[in-house]
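Final report, Chapter 2: Outcomes

The project's central promise was a pipeline that accepts a single protein chain and returns its three-dimensional structure in a standardized token representation, suitable for archiving and comparison. That pipeline is now operational. To close this chapter, we reproduce one record exactly as it appears in the project archive, with the input sequence first and the structure output second.
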Amino acid sequence: MLGKGVVGGGGGTKAPKPSFVSYVRPEEIHTNEKEVTEKEVTLHLLPGEQLLCEASTVLKCVQEDSCQRGIYGRLVCTDFKISFLGDDESALDNDETQFKNKVVGENDITLHCVDQIYGVFDEKKKTLFGQLKKYPETLIIHCKDLRVFHFCLRYTKEEEVKRTDRKNHAVMFDTLQDWCWELERTKGNMKYKAVSVNEGYKVCERLPAYFVVPTPLPEEDVPRFQGHGIPIWCWSCHNGCALLKMSALPKEQDDGILQIQKNFLDGIYKIIHRPPYEIVKTEDLSSNFLSLQEIQTAYSKFKQLFLIDNSTEFWDTDIKWFSLLESSSWLDIIRRCLKKAIEIIECLEAQNMNILLLEENASDLCCLVSSLVQVMMDPHCRTRFGFQSLVQKEWIMGGHCFLDRCNHLRQSDKEEVPVFLLFLDCVWQLVHQHPPAFEFTETYLTVLSDSLYIPIFSTFFFNSPHQKDTNMHQRQLSLPLTQSKSSPKRGFFREETDHLIKNLLGKRISKLINSSEELQDNFREFYDSWHSKPPSYHGLLLPHIEGPEVKVWAQRYLRWIPEAQILGGGRVATMSKLLEMLEEVQSLQEKIEERHHSQEALQAEATSLLRNSARLSSLFPFALLQRHSSKPVLPTSGWKALEDEEDLAKREDEFVDLGDV
């Protein structure tokens, strides 16, 4: 009874609507105040919280009375909350500081607390969702804790709205909006659309809940073969061309089913290949590129070069180290990956073609090649947050089988196939050759490679987003007690996937594959032309792939071998030495000007400064290990086995310093 009487305003009498309308802009009212106090209310952010956008000249209305009474200030949105910063909040700062553990204030709305958002357009209230073509006059936010906020945007100029570039934030791609943002960032939203047909993984457990397909593609086609045979968007080039990927259809023996599959692919082909407006070139990575067996074999040989038990073993293998390195073929595989990425870039950049990558499940080599193309072509992917978003999009949401490829379960019938490590090694080649083009260093890549084998976080521990979500919900983050069912090995060996592709692609798509001679000529011309000019670190970036330019990632592979480290050597030690010398020069200049200290004091101070860099090694920042060794720097024991100069010439790689790798 008491509640109804108070809330209803005396028996339900409706308050009269005010008739006064102000034609004075609020910035004019507050001009004098702003001239007197230019102090702007500070937005308090939690550690890791990022600002997304903000709008000035916003009125927080006391009540809905045609926005005549309210508080003038800024409305901001972060990835954690919506906040209103009023001009009169400075008086509250002293009270706020008394609560050190207070996460949100009176005018803060956490995003999880938002129940519904409405906009008022011409005095009509409408529910807001998606991207807006026009700003509402009033923004109304209903909160789950029963608060209601009214913000008047009538005086907010659209050009004054500040948006923080999404490149400053790693995108998780676990919502439909994340994919829409990526489409908008790459200008791919004119030809492609984000779909939610697999929401709840009701179509395919291999695909993410949300992904992007060509706009003309009917969404009902996606479930027909559980997502197989569907061109999925990876990235759009500045000229409108796009990089797509497709998983092969299931292998069938029945002629009738094969004909159905062929007709389905023909329909897909007509959607994505519409000359002269849309031209698609197909890259069959299962038959025209590497096989997983080659990667596994090469890495198995390669890693043995760094599994050194003692100093004696190190010097024994040092005699034939480069020969063993070459026989492993690991560097050659890296070179082939970089070359394939450049070939695709030439088609996108120079020939204005769309590229369709084909693979059995589109989750191994497709992830590798598409990621390399984006790192080379998109400067955003060379920033720290951009690179994190790339890994999340192409590898995590792309369904790369980290559990199987890293053999986390240590199943006896499987071996490690480090496709993701191969990608990081390729990126390292770019970072090593073009350091100014990247916002991160080789140490970042080394730590990222280590995280493959640290299951504290679940990022690299599952075979698909569905498997990750299922295990996270069931809290089964530890290893299962029984071995899980092995994933089918179809497509692991090249001959099986060759047969599959030949049966299903048909003559139409196979015509799109250019001859190797023509491809080689185009590649060489494009590659030489780019390297003949000074590199632009804010645009296209190509690596050198000639023999000596592809090197061993020393920081990752040699860091636990003390004999391979150079005390006081390496880039970090060199830079540290230069900084020390610069500090010394500056200090000397100050001392000369002041002439307060003796020459002996100056010399003693300089000596102490120069000691710091000597404690660094060529493999900084990783641990500097010491192993007692009686072997000299040069393996003289190997010299005794050499009979004459001709034998020495035959083994020209014996005495090359590992620091040059």
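Archive annotation: The chain has a mean pLDDT of 78.
This record, like all others produced under the grant, will remain available to the consortium after the project formally closes.
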